[in-house]
Design brief:
Length: 96
């Protein structure tokens, strides 16, 4: 077996303050910074699950006759409203 021409990488020579690493997770949820929130028109919803399928954060919750949203995790992207074939979801502005 051949010896390595250069010595292995020496990690002790890297400064300790080069790139700080986050040690605590932020308690903030996407619902804390959302500007628009989805509202379901229960008369129009046919429970087709298209909103559930397209939601990137999976915040859609199934109810007996319609789908609703977990607003703590919803980031307000509006994909559910765009993809709803019945136009049963409207994005309304969050109250301050």
């Amino acid at each position: 077996m051949k010896r390595q021409a250069k010595p292995f990488f020496d990690a002790t020579r890297i400064p300790g303050d080069l790139a700080p690493i986050a040690t605590e997770a932020s308690p903030m949820l996407p619902g804390d910074w959302r500007t628009l929130r989805p509202v379901v028109d229960r008369l129009k919803c046919v429970k087709c699950a298209v909103c559930w399928l397209y939601c990137p954060v999976q915040c859609v919750v199934e109810k007996p006759r319609w789908f609703d949203f977990n607003l703590a995790t919803c980031k307000g992207c509006g994909i559910c409203a765009q993809e709803c074939p019945q136009r049963a979801i409207a994005m309304i502005e969050e109250a301050a």
